[in-house]
Structure formats: C-alpha cells, structure tokens
Amino acid sequence: MNREVTSYEGSQPLLSVKDLKTWFPVKRGLFSRQKDYIRAVDGVSLELFPGETLGLVGESGCGKTTLGRTLLGLEPATSGGIYFKNSLLNPMRRKQMNRLRQKIQVVFQDPLSSLNPRMSVMDIVTEGLVQFKRIEGSKRDHARRLIKEVGLSEDAIYRYPHEFSGGQRQRINIARAISLRPEFIICDEAVSALDVSIQAQAINLLISLQERFQLSYLFISHDLSVVSNIADRIAVMYLGQILEKGKTADIIHEPLHPYTKVLIDAVPVPGKERRGESMEIKGEAASIATPPPGCRFNPRCPKAMAVCREIPPPLRRFGDREVRCHLY
Question: Is 186 domain-assigned?
Fold first, then answer.
C-alpha cells in the first residue's frame, strides 16, 4: 500500500513534544539513599500534524510504550513539555485532563485484555459516550452505528468479547476509540497480536477511518514493515532517544542512521535479494537503566568510531530529516 505524501509545511502541529523525559527512580542496595533512574524516555522531541500518522519504531524495551503512556497522562513526565493544540498537558488538573480525554484516545495491543469480559459490546463501545453524557437518543442506535463503522454486523452489540476472533475484538476496541470522535489516537502495537492477513485489514480500517474523521495517529510498533504501510513520517527510537526522523519513503529507501539500516535489513522481502550494503548487529541492547556513554547504539554499531564511545551525538537536521549520529 502506498501512502499519498502530504506536505505539512506551514501547518500548526496538533501535538508537540519538547525534550520530554520520563524517568523512574530505582534504589541500589537495601540501605542505599542514592537513587538511579530508568531513563525510559530521555529527551524526546517530536510533532504530529492534523490528519497525519507518525510511526514510532524500535525494539522492545526502547521506551516507545512509555512515551505513549506519558502522552496519555498514565505516566508522569519528569521534565519537558507536551502541547496539544498549543495547550500544555503536563502538569494538568484532573478535570482538565478528563475533558481532554474526549480528544485523545488509545487502542492497546491485546484486544482481549483491554475489553471487559462482563460487558456486552453495546456497553463497551458506548462507555465513553455515557461517561461524558453525550448519548442522544437510544444507546442501542449509537452502538449499532459505531459497530457498523468498523465493519461488524449490527447484531454484534448483544454479544460478549469472548465470542469474537482477535481481529474482531480489535475492531471493537477501535469502535470504542472513535466513539467520542477524537482528534488524536495512540495505536500502541495495535496490530502486533493479529495474524498477518488480519493486520492488513486492521490497517486498511484505520486508514479509512482517518480519512473519514480526519484523525491523527501515533502508531507505535516494533515492526518497520507494518509501520511503513500506514505512516506518513517515521521516528526511530532506541534506549529512550530518537535516533532518526523523516518521511516514510526517505527512511525506508535512504536510511541514514546505522540502526535504521539494521531495522530495514531485518525486514524479509519475498523474491528480492538484500539491498547493496546490508548490516548486522550482535548482542542485546544495553539496559535502559544504565545506557552506555556516548552514542547509545555504539556497543552494537558496525560503524562506531572513537568519538561515538565518548560524546553523545546531538539530533541534527538535514532538510526534512533529523539524525542523531556522528557520521553526519
């Protein structure tokens, strides 16, 4: 699937994240007073524009889910700013945050555990409408409309989550997310638990809903091949930091950071040989609690230099691209 390239130059961002840090304190030893920190999100800056999908890609444990939870207010930010339509989200009073939740929704990874097994589909998809007193007319009619918008039959509203397949349950989750007509939805590994064929259907559904309701997505995934089918731009994350950002086509066809090249080379393409210079990395990523000095990718980077082990590289801009690497 080829996404139509849209220019956002001159547009005001819907969401703006500036030097965001989410650190979790950890004590070393039974009687130690000194605290270390798990730097789950460590100086992340990004922007999301109206009607855009920003893909956030990285290995498990890189901090991408913590970033999503911080944007939702489920984790407190240590420092930095989160702005939604120029309004500062952190810190925000509970009443203000509740009003904002009508504009920001989420689709979680596991379609079963995120649905209450004791609630019917009708109650699940209209829960937000009831809470925010936005039910006009029959709740049944609202539920039928929502379930139809995600491609399920209207009689599904009388059934319970365990009666559906994984793909159908995720459609129910999506129906609940769009019930309040939000502007921004965080998709946290929203298709990773589904079979490959069902993944494509879910992505097509998300794209059609985006076009219909002018939604903006932050699409979080470890799978670059999945993200490339839905994202307008991609941000690559590693150990709490963004290593590269750019338009999807640029990231896929001309990656700059060695880590991005590794992720792309790891994607199998049936019937095609690997592109010219392929890269491989060895070993596991360092602990996010004790990141290495210098560039955080340097212990695994096939192009690491002496400076990479000593000085953290800044995030430099090259036109529409940004990359955190001493090679540039």
Answer: yes
Q: Residue 60 is part of which domain span?
A: 15-103+182-254
Taking a C-beta distance cutoff of 8 angstroms, is the pair 58, 243 a contact? no
Alpha-carbon span 48 to 65, nearest angstrom = 17
Q: What is the pLDDT of residues 56-106, one digit of tens each?
A: 999 988 999 999 999 988 899 999 999 998 888 877 666 677 777 789 999
The answer to whether the CB of 237 falls within 8 A of the CB of 9 is: no
DSSP string, 81-100: EEEETTEE-SS--HHHHHHH
Tokens of 320: 């529409």
128/131 Cα distance (integer angstroms): 5
Inter-residue contact 298 to 259 (CB < 8 Å): no
Classify residue 271 as left (phi > 0), alpha (psi -120 to 50) or beta: left
CA-nearest of 172, 101, 161 to 131 is 101
Q: Of 149, 74, 165, 62, which is closest to residue 111 (Cα–Cα)?
A: 165
Do the domain assignments include residue 266?
no
Q: Which of 7, 99, 102 is nearest to 50 (CA)?
A: 7
- pTM higher than 0.85, yes or no? yes
Which CATH number characterizes residue 224's domain? 3.40.50.300
Per-residue pLDDT tens for 123-133?
999 999 998 88
Tell me the three-class secondary structure of 119-186, residue by residue. CCHHHHHCHHHHHCCCCCCCHHHHHHHHHHHCCCCHHHHHCCHHHCCHHHHHHHHHHHHHCCCCCEEE
Q: Is the pLDDT of residue 224 over 50?
A: yes
User: In what order do the strands lie in the sheet containing 233-238?
Assistant: 104-107, 184-188, 216-221, 53-57, 233-238, 241-247, 321-323, 316-318
Task: Give the total number of structural domains in the chain.
Answer: 1
Residue 117 within any structural domain of the chain: no
Question: To which residue do tokens 């939740």 refer?
Answer: 101
For tokens 């009508």, the residue is 102
pLDDT of residue 1: 46
Q: Does some domain include residue 58?
A: yes
